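Z., the sequence and structure:
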Amino acid sequence: MISLVIADDEKNIREGLRDLFPWEELGIAVTCTAANGQEALSYVEKYGADLVLADIRMPVMDGLELARYIQKSHPETRVILLSAYTDFAYAQKALRLGVCQYITKPVDYQELTDTIKNLTSPRTETSYQGYYQEIAQKILRYMEENPAHATLSGAAGRVGLSPNYASQIFKQVYNENFSDRLLACRMTRARELLDQGIDARSAALQSGYQNFRSFTQAFTRYYKASPYQYCQAARKEDSDA
């Protein structure tokens, strides 16, 4: 998914853009909404973003200043400014600086769609592919290294992204939810411990479960057998051999 930050000081506009526009159909995830340019910039500085859609007039930091900062520090991030017809000269100034594209308010659905598609053409998406693959692989290694203590927030911190965005990238690359893969890693670890002769309660703790009942339920659902039944079957196989 391509990440998008929306910045507008009018709450109804930014929430409307977030909730009413079919971003997912364009392969885009809205990772942040901000009330001014400073909030948006803080997010981009911390987590990064592929696109920023910002009102040209906002308090604290306006859209033009935001675009200047982003072009300087994050040139890979594309900025689209929203402007009223009366701000046309202001928007033209931004365009001359080469920092963004602009769309006039009220936002026209087709115009915004066309602009987004132009900025996220197949060629652009291909350039993200290796980046996404690398992030997903780092998240997977993080889970496999220590499944007992792995969390989504920890994985996001490892790759420098928001938890929501990290989860979306992982699913896009592996076609699997973060939570499902983490469960698989924990169950694999639990089975390995049981195979080593570790008792079930210790295996539960070492695979990330403080509650033994929760561990037993998860193990039984995953392997179609309780930890006790699994160990019994393993002992029988050993004796038969």
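The radius of gyration is 24 Å. The mean pLDDT is 85.

Let me know what you think.
H.
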